[in-house]
Amino acid sequence: MKHQQSVLRLRRGVHGNMSFYRNAIWFVKGLQEYTRSGFEAAAKHFAPTDLDVNLSGRSFVITGANSGIGKATAQEVANRGGTVHLVCRSKERAEQARDEIVQRSKNQNVHVHIVDMSSARQVWEFAQSFVQSNTVHVLINNAGCMVNQRELTDEGLEKNFATNTLGTYILTTALIPALKTVDDPRVVTVSSGGMLTQKLNADDLQFEKGSFDGTMAYAQNKRQQVILTERWAAQHREIHFSSMHPGWADTPAVRTSMPGFHAKMQSRLRTEAMGADTAVWLAVSAAAAKQPSGSFFQDRKPAPTHLPLASSRATPQDEEKLVAALEEFAVKFKP
């Protein structure tokens, strides 16, 4: 018994030290790369013509598109003539965003769909009805949630997991058959560099063990999104999958969920348009489609999904456990 307790203490100590190491390395990296100055340095190497595209005739589904990076992405797509489907939770804010996007782009093909991405049933119902009367060329999984107190949805699921991971999983898998029927189909998932601080914990997907940390939960979800992107890319070679890190951007979500971080970093944060740049590039440019499917991107370049010496790689068994759990939930809530 004493030996087991000693082993547990040792494991906790190793895990704690590794978490501290990952967070420290990540923050230093972030100060160099994820800030406004990091974007400006990277942008010097962008190909200026990559975004000179006409998107008329192409249809984009963008979740969480009434503010922040989602709205900035929708604006850029609309500016280039694409048909935009804003998938949002709030009808009032979605319609306001639609009006602003139409006014700036002079593009009337901007449509609002009211869906709570934390509700598995609503996500299923939206996807099933959408494909009956609409085409989709590009899905941009942008909707995100960082609830700092553990909170359950009406379906009994932890809210961050339900929104960031399960909602993304159901919407993507439900739209894959429709995506396979069009030319140049793409799925872009807005993840976060914060996932570099986390190793997949497939045994506690809903954070039921130990004390709850909203920032850690969010980073776990973002790690899960990157793993899903890699797996989808391997399974569905007809579709170009990618995940990306927007950098540290000054968005309503950051201001609300991370007020301390926002207050300290405000002058160094990226604009929403800077945060959206790589998502737009991945969604519309010919150059992005030539990059390997399943990659994780930062400032228009593939980026490592693990920090050096961080011991954050999941085993194939843990990845399988994640997917099996998501599939079980997806089937449970399918109408």
TrEMBL record:
Gene: dhrs12
Stored PANTHER family: DEHYDROGENASE/REDUCTASE SDR FAMILY MEMBER 12, DEHYDROGENASE_REDUCTASE SDR FAMILY MEMBER 12
Organism taxonomic ancestry: Eukaryota, Metazoa, Chordata, Craniata, Vertebrata
Top-rank lineage group of the source organism: Eukaryota
Xref: Pfam families: adh_short (PF00106)
Region (Disordered): 294-316
Organism: Betta splendens
SUPFAM superfamilies referenced in this protein's UniProt entry, alphabetically: NAD(P)-binding Rossmann-fold domains
Protein name, UniProt field: Dehydrogenase/reductase SDR family member 12
